[in-house]
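pasting for the record
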Amino acid sequence: MDRQHERVVVTGLGLIGPCGIGIEENWSSVLAGRSGIGPITQFDASTFPSRIAGEVKGWDPLRWLDKRKVKEIDRFTEFALVATRMAIEDSGLDLTDEDREEAACVVGVGMGGLAPLERLVDTLRAKGPSRISPYAIPQIISNMASGHVSMMFDLRGPSICTTSACASGAHAIGEAAWMLRTGRARVAVCGGAEATITPSAIGGFAAMFALSRRNDAPELASRPFDKGRDGFVPSEGAGIVVLETLSRARARGARIYAEVSGYGCSSDAHHPVQPAPEGRGARVSMTRALHDARLEPSTIDYINAHGTSTPLGDIQECVAIRHLFGDRARPGNGLWVSSTKSTTGHLLGAAGAFEAAFCALSCARGEVPPTSNIVEQDPACDLDVVPNEARRRPIRHALSNSFGFGGTNASLLMSAI
C-alpha cells in the first residue's frame, strides 16, 4: 500500500494488563522483567494440565464504571472502556462536536465474551431457555468493546471490531491509522481487549498442547527464544492508543509518543495453527510495513517480536527476521529483538496493541525491554534477543509483530518524531 499524505501519530496510551493498571506500572514491569504471571484464580483450574495465566490483579470495574454498565458488559469490554478513558486522559484530547462526527473507534478482540457464553450454555442445560439473561448475547459478541467505547465517549465515526486472533489489536491500529491517512477520520481510538481466562479457553488451548505447563514456577513459564520453552501463557487486559494526524496533534500542542510510520499485513495461506515454512508470511508482513514507511531494513533499531514461547513459532519468526534483515540481524550488528510476552504473557487479541504501545514508548524514551527468562538461548533463535536486562539507546524505528491462528499476520512500525 502506498503512503498517503497525512502522517499519523500516537498521542495517548491506556494499558491494563497482568503487570499493572496504567502506563508506568506496565512499562516499569517489562523493563525490570517483573512477571505478571501466576496461578489462575478466576476458576478452579486444579484438574487442568496448565494452571497459570496473566490475570489483571485486583480488578474492580466499579472504580471506574457504574453498576448498571458493569451489569450489561463482559470483562473484556470493561477493560476496553477503562483503558480508553486512560488513553484519552493521557492524550489531553478535547473533541468538538464536529470532531466527534469523524472520530473512529477500532478495537480488536480475539474471542469475545467466553465467560458469559459458558454461563449461557450452563443455564440453558440446567434451567432451559426461559432463564437465559437478556444481557447474554450483548456480553458475548466481540464488537461490543468498540460499540461501548463509541457510545461512552461519543465517537460517531467508523466503529469497527477487528477479529484476527492474536493479530487483532495490531490490525486495529493499522486500519485506524489508514483511516486517518486517507482522510476518513480525524482522530481514532484503537487497540485491543481480551478476557478469556476461562475453562473453555484454557482447556481448549491446553488440548492443543499450546500452553506452558510450568505450573510450579509461573513467573518463569513464558520464555521466548529459550531452549526450555514449552508453550505460551495466556493473559488478559487491554491496550488502547489515541491516534491523530501529525498536523492536528501539533496544532493543539499535544505530546507525541511516536509516529505510526508503517503497517503491513499478510496471510500465510498454509495451516490453521502452524506458521508457514521459512516464516514466509511473517517476512511478507514485515516487508510491507517497511515499504509502507519507505524504510530499509538497515534503519530498524528494535523489533518487539511476536515471540510467544512456543517451540515452532519462535523459530519461524527468527528465520523470517534473519531472511529479511540479513547481516543486520546478526548479534552485535545493531538490531535488537525482544519479546515482552516473557513478562506479560500473551494477551491474545490485545497483544498487538499492547506491544505497539511498548514500541511507541521505546521510541519516546530510548529504552528497550528485555526478553526475560533466558537461561539457555535456543541456537535456532540466533538473534540479539536482549536477554534478561533492559537496554538504553535512541530508538529511531521500532517494529512490532503480531501473528495469529488462521495464518494472519500484522506488523506495525513506530518511529521517533
